[in-house]
Amino acid sequence: MTTATPASAATATAEGAGRATGPSAEELDGTDPLARFRDRFLPADGVVAYLDGNSLGRPLRQTGADFADVVAGEWGTRLIRSWDERWLDLPLGLGDRIAASTLGAAPGQTVVADSTTVLLYKMMRAAVAARPGRTRILMDDDNFPTDRFIAEGIARECGLELQWIPVDKAAGITIDLIDEALTAASGEAFGDRVALVVLSHVSYRSGHLADVAAITARVHDAGALVLWDLCHSAGSAPIELDAWNVDIAVGCTYKYLNGGPGSPAFAYVASALQNELDQPIQGWMGASDIFAMAEGYVPAKGMRRFISGTPPILGMLPMQGMLELIEEAGMPAIRQKSIALTEYTIRIVDDLLTPFGVQVASPRDSGERGSHVTIRHPRFKAVTAELWKRGIIPDFRNPDGLRLGLSPLSTSFGEVLVAVEAIRDILADTESAAEAGPGR
Ligand SMILES: Cc1ncc(COP(=O)(O)O)c(C=O)c1O
Ligand SMILES: Nc1c(O)cccc1C(=O)C[C@H](N)C(=O)O
């Protein structure tokens, strides 16, 4: 049976908390201009607080019906004709829609295809080949494992060096760190050994938000290309790829774009660079004339060349519903809600959890923070397991980080309060159990 939605269940317990330093969860939910969107998501049985939309966004209520329509219509009735009628254009059409609503990018520069990992490989491999003679890839040492592993593989495959940028886990990636790394990679001119720099816009661990425009400009001063991983920012933080002069970006669609488990990723390549990049997985769907069945691969002009095989059309369905919500709400309002959620989270963590020795690992300045707040405590692995039993779902990241993921369109302030109060109670219980000693 489906119980109350997380938002309403959580709001009921919000009374009073946090009043000393700011509005309560109940007041914040009551005045939230985006509150109406919460009801557009499917309620989850037994879940009282879902704070993991930065790993897997929630499904929309409409998603089941959208699938049924496609199965009966485009697939079931139009059958193979749907490729000509809509599907062949979908990777680029949907890419343009993501670009307009969330990436600050003009049409013709974004494609939806493959997993994030595969697109990262294709883009990194193409980028290093476009800077012949340069021998290094630079990447921060706290980047997400898949980014690191792909770069390690490409370095091995192409005989390049992978130079790690050592990041301060709290301060994230800064312009000073980039300057130091590029200086260390200089031969005759600033950073002239570097082919490609790969960074994440929002750190999956700390939630630190990088200054993309400034860092990109610095990388360009060195004559290198930059690839930004947007997994943790697309749909939750403002992005202006064209204005920031970004070369290449890749992001997933199952977090804040709510595309569902394994939904295909997107890649952006600035127009001026597209025909210079040769991607390594040369499949027929990226060829200049798909149905010519010709001998020899000739890449399509523009973004189509980054497609390899048949695109996962069904996997592109749920995100289309979510893009409608994002278009309706607008990214400025989404960012405002994200900031309000993370500020409230930090306020009540300070109020309720610092007495237990919990530390905030995310930046305290909202201008430097994405949409999740990571808090640290040595007992958080066990605390997370207990929270999950109670229907409160954040996630744990080694060695001691509990991530509170706040999805602006689906998370309520009440959910945050319920979670933080539960963390306090569990820490208090385990502390008193420890004091009582063994045998209790
Ligand atoms: C920064 C970042 N890059 C990449 C990925 C994942 O890649 P894939 O979608 O291929 O699993 C994630 C999350 O899973 C991520 O957080
Ligand atoms: N992509 C994931 C998956 O397939 C299973 C479990 C979790 C994930 C995640 O998204 C992890 C996430 N990117 C992270 O930031 O840790």
From TrEMBL:
Pfam families: KYNU_C. Its EC number is 3.7.1.3. The modification N6-(pyridoxal phosphate)lysine is found at residue 255. Pathway: Cofactor biosynthesis; NAD(+) biosynthesis; quinolinate from L-kynurenine: step 2/3; Amino-acid degradation; L-kynurenine degradation; L-alanine and anthranilate from L-kynurenine: step 1/1. Gene3D superfamilies: Aspartate Aminotransferase, domain 1, Type I PLP-dependent aspartate aminotransferase-like (Major domain). Residues 1-22 have a biased composition (Low complexity). It catalyses: 3-hydroxy-L-kynurenine + H2O = 3-hydroxyanthranilate + L-alanine + H(+); L-kynurenine + H2O = anthranilate + L-alanine + H(+). Its cofactor is pyridoxal 5'-phosphate. One of its GO terms (molecular function) is pyridoxal phosphate binding. InterPro entries: Kynureninase (IPR010111), PyrdxlP-dep_Trfase (IPR015424), PyrdxlP-dep_Trfase_major (IPR015421), PyrdxlP-dep_Trfase_small (IPR015422). Coiled coil: none annotated. Residues 1-31 are annotated as: Disordered. Keywords: Hydrolase, Pyridine nucleotide biosynthesis, Pyridoxal phosphate. It is an enzyme of class 3 (hydrolase). Belongs to the kynureninase family. NCBIfam families: kynureninase (TIGR01814). This is Kynureninase. The gene is kynU.
